[in-house]
Amino acid sequence: MSRRVLLHVGCPKTGTSYLQDVLFRNQALLREHDILYPADRFDAHFLAALDLMTLPWGGLETQAVGAWDRLSEQVRDWHGTSIISHEIFARATPTQVERALASLGDAEVHVVLSVRDLVRQVPAEWQENVKHRSHITYASFLETIRDPGRESKIGSWFWAVQEIPDILGRWGASLPADRVHLVTVPPSGSDRGELWRRFSRTFGLDGLPLDLTAERENPSLGVPETSLLRTINQRVTSILAPPDYRPLVRELLAHQTLSRGVASARLGLAPDDHAWARELSRSWVAVLAQRGYDVAGSLDDLLGPDLGAFADPDTATADELLPPALDAISALLVEAARLRAVEERLHEELREAHAERDRAQLTTSYRIRRKVVTSLEESPAGRGTLDAYRRLKHRR
Amino acid sequence: MSPVPTHLDDAARAHGWVEHLRGGGTTPWSAWAAWSDAGSGAGSRTPTAPLPGAQQLELLRRINVAAGSSAHPRGDQGRERTRLADRVLAAPAAGRGKADLPLVGLAAPGFGPRPVDPADLSAHELLRVASVLLADDLVALGADPVRTSWPRPWRRRVRLVGDPVTVGALRVDLLSRGRPEGGPRPFVVAVGAPLDELLARTWTQRCFETGTKPWSEWLRFWRERDQLPARADLLASVQRWHPRRPLVRVVTDLDRLPRQVGVRHLPPVRVPGADQAELARRVAAVVGLRVPAADRPELMRTLQRRIPDSGVAPIGVPARELAWVASSAERMTRGLSRAGYPVVGDLADLAPSTAPGRGRPDDRQVLDLAIRMVVDPRWRGADSDEGQVER
Prior knowledge:
heterodimer; A: alpha/beta; six-stranded parallel beta sheet; 16 helices; B: four-stranded parallel beta sheet; 14 helices; 4 strands; elongated; disordered N terminus
């Protein structure tokens, strides 16, 4: 069987979490069909990407040591098709791309990029920034990414992982066009299964009895919920370390609580920004059409939806923020109560352990020995005697 | 240099500059680009290879400048120079900042980051590459062995807490003298200092262990929480060991510290300068991606012992934070007084006393130090920690 590697390098906010979760949960079945998704944890390829690109990530990078080399070794050793997938690979520099492709051996490499229109990506990326500790306002975010100099961290990162022609210029430079695959995210309101069908076709998964249950998704937030989260970040980002922020704010508040506000207005673009995004997308579509890549879906999907009603998150009123704020307080109180219960249980276990130790030490001989040791430890001569005794008894 | 045909396209011109730099050249890109008969464009790097980013190229140029003026020429210059150049060109710029930047003046595809003149890059951008080189050097060097000797049975049992720089140096010294920390019922010796210095040293030591956030962010983190970091909080540090009161010593007079730990003299304590700490902080972030988490502190302490001196003052607390530091010091002093722990010295010495002229990180100084360390490998040699200056 010929060796193939399908390298899915982005983009963020294009259904990648769902795809990676399906691949991770169905590893055994995929292997039976000679398809390897080498991951011992759901975020294994994220760690490999951090390693490949030397990206510190709030302390998570310490778990990434050697992750790319391990991943590429597994891929080189596999006889059939291998799939690698993480959206931050999109940011790799030409030098890192060269290293990555070289480390995959002599396999036939295909690069896959899933893409979505800028009209939906811009607000989604702002939300993603807010879910990663940022308290930049929506207006400032837009100003930042529209700065041609891309001087800020946010601007340089945004374009590194969202500028489709540039990403494919880096990842596809050494590959023939028919080994570069674009998967477009269908327009809003399309059949929910359509994106999966496009992924499935591109990754050669059609006909496999995969468990497609959605277990891990990256849900979006409504306008007041995102606005609230940004306001919370203003207060807590400087005093809450990333290892605490991740479970308490991103997971508990953003993903598990605030994303439930399905009735809230969804974030879009103001007319001027919408026109800019549309225009830019048109220029991208023209370039991509010329390059002749394989496309699952349609390049027209990249033009995005027409201008809709715009709710500005920077001007959300206190009345609009109150309901999600109460939800957030409730969720934090419930979590605090759960952690108190855990703490109490641990204290109880510690009390039991101490009681057991005390019972064991209650003998007369133990008390006498303890007294002797305590007396000897009071003086240098006594300490020397004790040390000599311990050495003789091999107790040191 | 031989003339280059004028029909050489942009890529060949850029690769010609790469070759020029690989050969030790120091011509800035703007001068090279304007100079149509610039020299040997052909080389081992073909124009099809990816062009390194402006950050890598400018760092290499500055390394070449520094190597040219170095008073310590390397042995086999040609081979070493090329090997180092290739490492610089292949090194990524660490962190989530800008990706590799294209050179200004070349035909641009219309996508990607805006091209730059490498000479205009900030020290911060070049440090992102330099820190990767130094981290790789450090990992290749490995951790220095820890000197130990047979434990003296009559030693005074102590547990050291407080000023992390002093305690770190003392701990190593005691271990080498057969007086390891710990043991049954030890004296808990809390080494104090004016709280502003204690905070600065706590951050500095973090830089040389696991790395941390920038100094101003770190200070803000604690100020807004109105808490002290564990090692700067003497009261909490002592209480963590649950000692009986007679077995505690809070030492603010360092001249009397040796007696408290059962020795005659303190080892020389070297407080790293602001530039050294900042460079270590950046290197630590990359080392975290190169070695298992448990190995990083020892590697970073090796760097602490070996990092060349630069004469820059240690980091200091800025004036705007002093009010908070003063109130924290008062609170800590009250807590220690109420606890009734024996004090060697005077608790009033814990009040902040920021002296004028204390350092703060300056990226240009940090970059100078980093380039010096890349060019002059003596810090990686044997006995490199000799001649360090005590502050």
